[in-house]
Amino acid sequence: MLDDGSNAPDPGDISPPVRDLQDIPSVEVISRAAVMLLSAAAERLGLADEDPDTSPHRDLDEARRLITALAGLVTASAEYLGVHAAPLRDGLQSLQRAFREASAVPDAPGQGPGEKYTGPVI
Asked: Which pTM was predicted?
């Protein structure tokens, strides 16, 4: 914003306009939360790095928590997500499979992260 008291935007300001939470549809809030959980879990699995096995960001305990939270959110809100539900479920299943592959001792079917909400992922 300009310092002259006008409401004209500063041409150098590239930040998006701020929206009140009350103006954001629930499906968008849920989808954003799911994408944040999905991204954070991928980071904790080391998937953002060239070699996940040697990633300094890999933390399977943290990944398990994030994947389980994502599974709960996606499962509980699937009926409200419409066209967003399938891609979020696919992303969740990809993370669950990546977790299984990354684990030195894989969980039994149905015992992996989030599987109490989604069922076994093979």
From this structure: 0.82
